[in-house]
Structures are given as C-alpha cells and as structure tokens.
Amino acid sequence: MTRFVVLISGNGSNLQALIDACADGRIQGQLVGVISNKAEAFGLQRAQDAGIPTQVLANADFASREDYDAALITALESWQPDLLVMAGFMRILTPAFVQHFAGRMLNIHPSLLPKYQGIKTHQRAMAAGDDVHGATVHFVTEELDGGPVVLQAKVPIFSDDSVEDLAARVLTQEHQIYPLVVNWYCQRRLQMRDGRAWLDGRCLPTAGYA
Ligand code: GAR
C-alpha cells in the first residue's frame, strides 16, 4: 500500500480530512506519520488521537534552511514514504529538498493558482474585487506555489464576506478535494512527468480549471 506522510505547521484541519478519509476507505493508502515544524501545532494532537506517529522538527533549532531541510529529509526517510502531503506546512523548501522528493510531493494552496501565490490569499482576492476564489492541489516543484495543478475547487465571494467567512468557505472545499487527489496518487492514477500532472495517462491542463 502507498505510504504517505503529512507535513503541518498548525491547526491540521486538512490533516483531519485525510485521517478521516483513510479511516473510511476513501483513501486507499497508509498515513504513516505526521511531521510539524511547530511543537504547538494542534494537528499533532489530531494525529496522536488517531494513533499516527508524530515528529516535531523545529526550524528554530537549525542554523540555515539547508541544514533544516537536510534534517527533514532524514526524519521523513525514517518512514520510507512514497508521497509527502503538505497540509498547511508554512515553509519554503530548498531545491535540494524538492529534488530529493521530486514527483512525490503534493501541496494545497488557498487560491485559484496561478492567482495569489504566497500568503494572505483571501485578503488579496477580496481587495481585488474578485467574485470567485478557491483552492488548488498541485505537485510541488522548485517554483513556490508554481507546480503543475491537479485539482481546483471554486467558491463565491459575497460582498458582505469577512476574511474569516471566505477562509472557512475555502477550507470546506479543501477538505473535499485533498483526499480525492491523495487517493488518486495512492492508486497510482496520478503522476508528475515532464513537469506536467497526468491523471489516468492523460495530461491535465497546465493552468488549472479556474
Ligand atoms: C489551508 O488553508 C491551506 O490551504 C493553507 O494553510 C491552511 C492550513 O489549514 N496552506 C497554505 O497557505 C500554504 N501556502 P489547516 O492547518 O487547518 O489544514
């Protein structure tokens, strides 16, 4: 069975969605460990409650990004994962790290990429006057939030939304699309090849569906 590790920095609601999907068979894969760069991340509790091994690797303990990522590779490899699933892991990864796990890393980002790479995506979508927003699951490459798109979900932006309203609406969709994509990977239906994402042997559109 495909072995995957989830990387988190905070609340871990996407992690919970993945735990639940493994438990009820929507993901045909094994979640073998959770790693956080923050000791206080609530997601660690979620993992422990589900009986999943956890490790904390605090970036504050390392002199450089390169040192941290080298230690992260060692920690991750102790679980021999086939796939890394970034779920609110708020770190920029070094090229060496990305190359080590090339084609075996997924991320979820709270915008309709390529729009709003980086942070404060909900604020930026609202400030731009957009009436549609969403979330994207993509393969991780060296380009920040720039790897090939696998699946997106759209939500409306209402004129009386607060940032929190919009963030919650997007997060609900994240919890739907991430287990679906992780399952495709676990079932070997999804690959990254030639810098593109492929599902069931067909190349997915480079710019997503938004
Ligand atoms: C999610 O909205 C995820 O898309 C975002 O952080 C949140 C984590 O929530 N990730 C990024 O912004 C990565 N650039 P969670 O901890 O409840 O899953």
UniProtKB/TrEMBL annotation:
Stored SUPFAM superfamilies: Formyltransferase
Site (Raises pKa of active site His): D145
Keyword Transferase: yes
Protein's name in the database: Phosphoribosylglycinamide formyltransferase
PROSITE patterns (alphabetical): GART (PS00373)
Domain of life where this protein originates: Bacteria
Signal peptide: none
Binding of N(1)-(5-phospho-beta-D-ribosyl)glycinamide, residues: G12, S13, N14
Domain Formyl transferase N-terminal: 3-182
Pfam families in the cross-refs: Formyl_trans_N (PF00551)
List of catalytic residues: H109
EC number, UniProt record: 2.1.2.2
InterPro entries: Formyl_transf_N, Formyl_transf_N_sf, GART, GART_AS
Keyword Transferase: yes
Protein keywords: Purine biosynthesis, Transferase
Catalysis performed (reactions): N(1)-(5-phospho-beta-D-ribosyl)glycinamide + (6R)-10-formyltetrahydrofolate = N(2)-formyl-N(1)-(5-phospho-beta-D-ribosyl)glycinamide + (6S)-5,6,7,8-tetrahydrofolate + H(+)
Family label: Belongs to the GART family.
Pathway: Purine metabolism; IMP biosynthesis via de novo pathway; N(2)-formyl-N(1)-(5-phospho-D-ribosyl)glycinamide from N(1)-(5-phospho-D-ribosyl)glycinamide (10-formyl THF route): step 1/1
Residues engaged in binding (6R)-10-formyltetrahydrofolate: R65, M90, R91, I92, L93, N107
Gene Ontology MF annotations: phosphoribosylglycinamide formyltransferase activity
Gene that specifies this protein: purN
Organism the protein comes from: Pseudaeromonas sharmana
Described purpose of this protein according to its UniProt entry: Catalyzes the transfer of a formyl group from 10-formyltetrahydrofolate to 5-phospho-ribosyl-glycinamide (GAR), producing 5-phospho-ribosyl-N-formylglycinamide (FGAR) and tetrahydrofolate.
